[in-house]
Amino acid sequence: MTNDQELKTREAADDKMINDAFQHLLDTYIQSRHRKKVDIITKAFNFARQAHKGVRRLSGEPYIMHPIAVAQIACEEVGLGSTSICAALLHDVVEDTDYTTEDIENIFGPKIANIVDGLTKISGGIFGDRASAQAENFKKLLLTMSDDIRVILIKICDRLHNMRTLASQPANKQYKIAGETLYIYAPLANRLGLNKIKTELEDLSFRYEHPDEYASIEQKLASTQASRHTLFDEFTAPIREALDKMGIRYAIKERVKSPYSIWCKMQNKHVTFDEIYDILAVRIIFTPKERENEINECFNIYVAISRIYKSHPDRLRDWLNHPKANGYQALHVTLMSHQGRWIEVQIRSDRMDEIAEQGFAAHWKYKEGENGEINEDDGELNDWLHTIKEILDDPQPDAMDFLDAIKLNLFASEIFVFTPKGEIKTMPAGCTALDFAFSIHTFLGSHCIGAKVNHKLVPLSHKLESGDQVEILTSKSQHVQPSWINFVSTAKAKAKIQAILRRESREIQKLGEDTLGEFLKKNGMEHTNAAVDKLAALHNMDKREDLLQAIGEKMIILGEKDIDELKGKKREKSTGGWRKFVPFIGGGKAKKDEGKQPELFVVSESFNRKKPIIITDENISQYKFTFCCHPIPGDDILGFIDNKKQIEIHKRACPVAAKLKASYGNRILDAKWDMHKKLYFDATIRLEGIDRMGMLNEVTRVISEQMSINIHKVAFSCNEGIFEGTIELYVHDRDDVRSIIGSLKKVPGVQEVSQIM
């Protein structure tokens, strides 16, 4: 076959694939409850197809397949209408081609153009070289959200398709995109009620960041499927009988915990897969006889099933009368099965189920009437967007702080608090009296000295609970304290406290700058940025602002050593400085060189960021090992290029790395181990169990004799027959830790074993 024939065959196959995908989109749309505006969708498809003609994705497929897939998700999985489908088809046109937003407006009208414009603003520079590009994009995204919530909904659809096709990206991009997704997009999807999409985003991120753990959990879920089905059938049989007698139309579904949720629980609770008992939950979805009576019908079902099984007194969750801020409504009850297992049952109507799966933003806020008008009838979502607007009005200078402040809002689960006049306020769980004060007014918060909760005097840091009645007490002499930041938990309070402290801090920094200027002038030196940087490094300060602040607060008194540093005079250096970077104990060589600073690897302009860095026994001292997560060989790791162009190594699941992936994704590198059990690393094991004679002796014998592992330090305590303790060890890698934990679990009386660090 000639090249021309091959090209024609490929083009014909591409055209068929594109046409089939678009036809599937139209079929889905026609079956939906939206008004049938097929013409404008076809027009948008033809326009986008022409604009992206000849362009291919990394996977090799025609680029137009991506906008069609995003539109399919928006239509089928989020339930959006023609305006959103058109915007999804056109979402990359302005960014990737010569067409402008004005062109889109002239052809498709202002509404679609506005959404496309919002999506274009967000996308700019997502893989760019600017530090914190993702945080900047997120800021833009939140600003456009309050104009039209469909912008963020389509952006989430776009992200979901990117995650589904992430296999074609290099590993460092996979970690960056997966990290951003877990840090920003999954919580956003959750906040907007897109539960199904949130779960898939989390699982896909987990799959790319920890492929081995993901595969292991998937395999275990598959192997335990039959026993779960049996448990489900036996548990639901009497429930079905009771509901049939009541004449209710219902469906009972099996809900299996997602791999990511299972893994999170395994990490947080230090348990194995076999020790997780809430993998199975049961969902009862019913069609109410009368729509306005659906809440009562939920409780009737609860009463009926609690006659069959005993319910857990502390595990009744009523989201019916107080829906979550994302619109979620259901009644959750935990029942004891006849097999001796607690099983959670979720009771909800078909309407509640639809909102839980597809999100209320799409269904309530933008249900278009016959005249195409938009219904602004959703208070909770607008309150949330308003709070974010306030944070954006005083943006944080640091991208990381900004993302953290927003996340506080995204993750919040709610409590209900009353004002002295009996007005109800929705607040995040875990909030304090000071959070409540700032939620009412900044003046009230900044002059708050305490509160009365249920008529009793409490401090600012008192945590509020649902149903509390709160009165804020103020004093004009009160000022914002730096310590307040440690106990407030809402984004609004944190943002306001930081803004006030920054304002005060600027005044102190100005004083510090004047003091430094006088000191340099007195000693015949110039006040330059280079001089300030030298002094900052001397006093172990990362930023010039920190140095000026410390001078202004008189925490640093400038003197002889500062003059020596600026004039380049050598001073005695303290020994052992480099060891703070490397949490391992080498052989004799490491000890001999302990006083020397090793040559840390510096990333050059020509460095290939797509290739993984390989950490070996020989080059390990060239990298910085962080103490936030204490990685050792065998852990899933990544590299991060810091401000000095040196490479930090983090676990992929490290909370600090999560922020770095979301804010500085272009500096993330793939990293792999190639170690040969020559070096030792620290590991601390925690044990708990029932004490008996010789227990400590047996535990230490298992480690040192059976496993041939060096014990560095042991600390055990016993109270009323229960012992707990920690053992610090020197191990070669993660496999050593797993073997030790496995062996210790076999010691009679040992109940729990986990690794601390």
UniProtKB/TrEMBL annotation:
GO CC annotation, single: plasma membrane
Q: Which Gene3D superfamilies match?
A: 3.10.20.30, 3.30.70.260, Beta Polymerase, domain 2, Hypothetical protein af1432
Say which family it is in. Answer: Belongs to the relA/spoT family.
Can you name this protein?
Bifunctional (P)ppGpp synthetase/guanosine-3',5'-bis(Diphosphate) 3'-pyrophosphohydrolase
Residue span, TGS domain = 413-474
- From which organism does this entry originate? Marseilla massiliensis
Q: Which GO biological-process labels does this protein carry?
A: guanosine tetraphosphate metabolic process
Organism phylogeny: Bacteria, Pseudomonadati, Bacteroidota, Bacteroidia, Bacteroidales
For this protein, the record's PANTHER family field holds: GTP PYROPHOSPHOKINASE, GUANOSINE-3',5'-BIS DIPHOSPHATE 3'-PYROPHOSPHOHYDROLASE
Q: Which Pfam families match?
A: ACT_4 (PF13291), HD_4 (PF13328), RelA_AH_RIS (PF19296), RelA_SpoT (PF04607), TGS (PF02824)
